[in-house]
Structures are given as C-alpha cells and as structure tokens.
Amino acid sequence: MRVVLAIAAKDLRQRLRDRSAWVIVFLAPVLISALMALAFNNNDTFRANLGVVDLDRGPAAAGLTRVLRSPELRGTVHVRSYGAEAAARRAVDAGDVHAAIVVPQGFTASLHGGSAAPVRVLDSVDHGLQAQLARAVTESYVAQVNADRLSVATAVAAGAPRGDIPRLAAKAALLRLPEQIRAQGLPDSPLKVISYFGPSMGMFFVLFTVGFAARGYFVERQQGTLDRIAAAPVGRGALLIGKSVSTFVYSLAGLATVTLVSWLAFDAEWADPLGVAALSVAMAVSVVCLTALVIALVRTEQQAQGLASILVFALVLLGGNFVFASGTTPLIRRLALFTPNGWALRGFTDLGTGVRGWDAVGAPLLGIAAFSAAVTAVTVLLLRLRRTS
Amino acid sequence: MVCGLLRPDAGSVHVTGRPVSTAAGPAKQLIGFVPQDVALYPDLSVRENLRFFGRLYRLPRRRLERRVDEVLDLVDLASRADDRVESLSGGMRRRLNIGAGLVHSPTLLVLDEPTVGVDPQSRHAILESVTRFGEEGMAVLYTTHYMEEAERLCDRVGIIDRGRLIAEGGPRELVQLVAERDRVRLTAVGDLSAYAEACRRLPRVEGVARGGDRGDVVELVVKDARSLLPDLLDLAHQQAVGIRSVEIDEPDLEAVFLHLTGTALRE
C-alpha cells in the first residue's frame, strides 16, 4: 500500500507542477461554465414586460389583465397599459416592453353572440421568449372564453331564455377548463444553465486527463524511470493501481472544483449533494478506465495524445456536453447513452431539476459502470494479446 | 535480466541465494539498478527523486530520510537537494542517477555504463565512488566499453561479445591469455582500411582494429612486435601509407578483447 501511495503521490506532485494541467482541468472549466451561465442565464431573473391595449373595456378584457397580474405570474410578468395599438407598437419597437397584447373592441360582447376581431400579440424578434409567453397566456385565456361561449350557446340551444344569457355567462366564467395534462417525470424546478454546463464543462476538461495520464506513462517509459520502478520490488499491480489512483484523484479534484465553484459562486443548484458526489466519482473512474484503454492501444507518446484527443471530442460531442440533451436529435440522444459523460449529464440534469436520490442518479451510475466495465474488458483483452504477440 | 527487467531464455540469476525474476521478489530488494541513461524525474527535486526511489524499497520513514541525506553527501549534491533535476548539469544528473540506485543500501549495485558521455571530472568522481562501494563490501556489477575502467575497478571481468560470455576471470588472469602478445599502435596517413586488411594477412598478427579520434590509428595484437615491426613498415611503404608514430604496449584488457574478438571495442 505504501508503494501504491508513493507512486500516486509522485504522479500527483508532477501533475500539479504542470501549469497547463492546472489551466485545463481547474481554471478553464470554471471560466467557460461561468461564461455560459452569463450568456444564457435562465434563472429567476427571467422577466417579461408586456403591454396591454384594452380597446374592449369590458369585463372579458379586464379578465385577461387580471390573469396577467395574477400571483402565479407575479415576478415574471410585468404589465403596462396603453390606450392605442400604435402606442403599444412603438413601445415594443423601442424595447420598452417585450411584447403587447391587443384586445379588440367588442371582445366582451362576442361572449353574448356574434363575432369580434381576434386578440393579437405584437412581438419583436429581440424578445421571442417573452412574445411566446404572451401568446401562450392569451391563447389560454381565449380558450377559456371560447369554452364559456360554448357553454352559454349550449344552454340557449337547450331552451334557456335569452334574458338569462348574462347570468349564464357569469356562471360559466366561474368554471375553469380541466387541469392541463402534465407529463410524469417532468421536474418541478427549471434547470439552470450553470447547473448543466458547470459539470458539463468540468467533464469535458477532465476528459483531457486521459491524454495527460497516457502521455505521462509513455514519457516515463522513454526516460527510463518505468524500468527503474520495475527493477524495484514493486509488482505490476501496485504500479497500475498507483497510477490509476493519481488519475482518479486528479479527475475527481477537477470535477469537484468545478461543481463547488458553480455552486458557491454561480448559484448552481442540485437537489442531492450525495448524488453529485456519486456521479463525479463514477465519472473519475471512467476516466481511469479510458486512460488504461489508450495506453493499451498505442505505443508512443504522440499516438497517445492523438487518440486521447479523438476520444475526448467524440465523447463530448456524443454525450451532449455542448448542448442541452433536449436540444439534440433522437439519434444523438440515443448515442449519448454509450458515453459516460452522456449518462452523467442525465444525472446532473435530474439533480438540477429537483429530482433526488436513486431516481436521479441510479440509471446514470449503472450506465457509467457498464461503460467502464466494457472499456476495462477491452483493455485487458488488448494487454493479453500484446503480451502473447 | 540481472535486475529482473527481462525474462531469461535460459538459466537463472541469484543474489545471495535468492532467485531474481520479473516479479516483485525479495531478491530485488537487494539490487540497486543504475541504468545507462539518466532515469530520473526532471520536474521533481533532487531530494524528491531520492525519496521516491527509496519508498519503492519500503524504507521506514526515518531511515529513508537519513539515507537520502547520506546519499546526497555521497554524490556531492547536498547543496542542490531542493533544486529540480532539470536545473542540474549533465555530470550532476549522472551522479544523482547513481545515488538513486543507492538509497536503499543494496547488496548488489548494477551500473550500466555509468561514465558514457560524462566529463572527466565527473567520470573521476564516479570511478572513485565505485571503488569506495567495493571497499565498503558492496558487490558492484559494472558494464563498460572502457577496458581501462574494468582494469581499474574490477576483481573479476567477464567479456561478452555478441551476447555470449567469451572469457571470465580476474584482470591478471585474462591478461595472461595474451601474455606473449604485444599491442602495436600505428598512427598513419593514407588508405588505412586497405592497410589494416593487409596487416591482418601477415603471420603473427592476431587482431587488427581501426581507432583514433580521426580514424588515423591502426591497432594490432601481435606475437613478438619487435621482429614484426620491419614487415609492418614495409607493408606501409608498399601501400603508400605514411607512418607518423609507432607505440608498442604491454598487453592489457583491451589487448585481451582485441585478441579474443578480433575487433575493436569502442563501437
């Protein structure tokens, strides 16, 4: 055990004296995830300033304004009223509001029969998300109004006196459409960009450890120190474990640094710290296995560097380290299941949206374990073949 | 093979009765290995290198620290103990390379051509150290192409040619093999390759080799140099080779090698 620790400590000391390693594994992921968080910040500062033009001045139009000012939307939607559509249009174009909703004249009257011009949303290309929100709220409200109209029309068709229409309309307005469909498994909390890209960038850069460690092995072989270790009473197992421990510790330290900085400095949120730790450990183990595979596959330092680079970029592109998994094609999402980082990111996404414990990390841990086991099996096979050839 | 780096095709190596193998057997604890090329970590300090190699031999912490200090004194690097190896001169690295093989106080020290590419001062220091190790009771297995080193340092010499041990014994014993032969060293100008070939065909010539920094030397191992010398000079005249100087030496290990292999050593 002392020998294993001596080899691991020596490797770590060398690694920490390499400035490029510091930059790549510790500094770069923190900086890039911070930049991404700043660029795509989607946390509670999301805000939609919406204008409302009430040309109807009836209770139905007032109802829409009430919805926009409801407690559910408080903090997200801010309403400003305009007297005319032209004024609202100018405000949208000037960026004073992100979008504006125009309720046409006769909107309330249309509830009693007849037709009115449609409710319209004035939007701007600069604030697509806020315009979408305005459209969604309006459509939802109009759908409710249409349902009320249908109720009243049905009552009248069934023989209700026309004099009862205002009372029926008021009664229908109290009713609400049934609860919307809600897909099972969807999280309660929105995923913050930093909660995804923090670990994502951490994994991306920690995967470079594969190249460092594999190259280090060949450098040692070239400079003769591996022979020197082999001449000492040190078993191959101790050498292998010692080098693996250093790679594991280094990778884990890189991931831990990024997650800690993301959490402390950039308000990343994960529901379960133990889950974060488990995913980081599993990912560090897979880095160790990949390093062994690269060493088994190549024969020189240059080959190790080349293969490790290809491997890293293939894994991060397939695993979804640069884009949210939901933003990729089904094929890429399926291919991500063949990468440890793809599995880890699924876990971090669940943890970042409030899912806890085994529900969040169970499948990812098993997926990463399967990947690591497969890589280890191939490595052992290659080493045996090399020994016999 | 002696250090357990390679598996032997046949035979075995024992150190104080313990077999050496590629596995981490107890015999390896007794061996100190100093490879030909400097095998150290350039980004670690002198002390860190010695400490690391000492730890591989499971030295207890206090003993390790004591041995590291002793070895630093021994290789005269105590003042550079905390400097990185990459900042040392070539000679210092060579000395540290030897020191790293000594930290665990081995019973057998294997030195693989430790003076190759070393400046004269460092070479002298290394040879002095090796002599001292021997005097202190450490067995030293020293491989070299320099016969004068073998003659100066070794109690027993084995001559290996093309992977085969062709002679073994004390330096005096080996020199006896060519006791009646002389070594003739001719410094000359002209077509020395042709001249050397012609010399080889002369009777009483047992070994011929080219040498000298500028390739201007022909070395011969011959029987009765004085009677052969006129023939050598005649041959030079015939071949239009100008002889600049002639040296006749008493036989030494180099002559032994030349005699046994028929070729020069420094290849």
From TrEMBL, chain A:
Highest taxon listed in the record's lineage: Bacteria
Keywords: Cell membrane, Membrane, Transmembrane, Transmembrane helix
ABC-2 type transporter transmembrane domain sequence ranges: 20-380
Keyword Ribonucleoprotein recorded: no
Membrane topology: Multi-pass membrane protein
Pfam families: ABC2_membrane_3
GO cellular component, one term: plasma membrane
InterPro entries with a match to the protein in the record: ABC-2_transporter_component (IPR051449), ABC2_TM (IPR013525)
Cell compartment(s), UniProt: Cell membrane
UniProt GO molecular function: ABC-type transporter activity
Major place of residence: membrane
Residues spanning the membrane: 21-40, 196-218, 248-266, 278-298, 310-332, 361-383
Name of the protein described by the UniProt record: ABC transporter permease
Organism: Streptomyces guryensis
UniProtKB/TrEMBL annotation, chain B:
Superkingdom to which the source organism belongs: Bacteria
Record has Plastid as a keyword: no
GO molecular function, one term: ATP hydrolysis activity
This protein's record includes keyword Cell division: no
InterPro entries: ABC_transporter-like_ATP-bd (IPR003439), ABC_transporter-like_CS (IPR017871), P-loop_NTPase (IPR027417)
Cross-referenced Pfam families: ABC_tran
Keywords associated with the record: ATP-binding, Nucleotide-binding
Residues of the ABC transporter domain: 1-187
The protein, known as: ABC transporter ATP-binding protein
Species this chain originates from: Streptomyces guryensis
